[in-house]
Amino acid sequence: MSKVCAITGKGPLSGNKRSHSLRATRRKWNVNLQKVNVMVDGKPQKIRISARALRTLKKQGI
């Protein structure tokens, strides 16, 4: 299972973790994915969407 939102296409971001002495090591920020049952073409389907996309769908009443 990939760590990508099914609706927005958001994926993990990468960058540097900085210590107190500013040494840089690589790190990754993963997307906050949630498993949700959503109606797709009139049928309930379980998809993985980001928490932000879920919030937007709830706000729009979908």
UniProtKB/TrEMBL annotation:
Keywords: Ribonucleoprotein, Ribosomal protein. One of its GO terms (biological process) is translation. GO terms for cellular component: ribonucleoprotein complex; ribosome. InterPro entries: Bacterial_rp_bL28, Ribosomal_bL28, Ribosomal_bL28/bL31-like_sf, Ribosomal_bL28_bact-type, Ribosomal_bL28_sf. PANTHER family: 50S RIBOSOMAL PROTEIN L28, LARGE RIBOSOMAL SUBUNIT PROTEIN BL28A. Belongs to the bacterial ribosomal protein bL28 family. This is Large ribosomal subunit protein bL28.
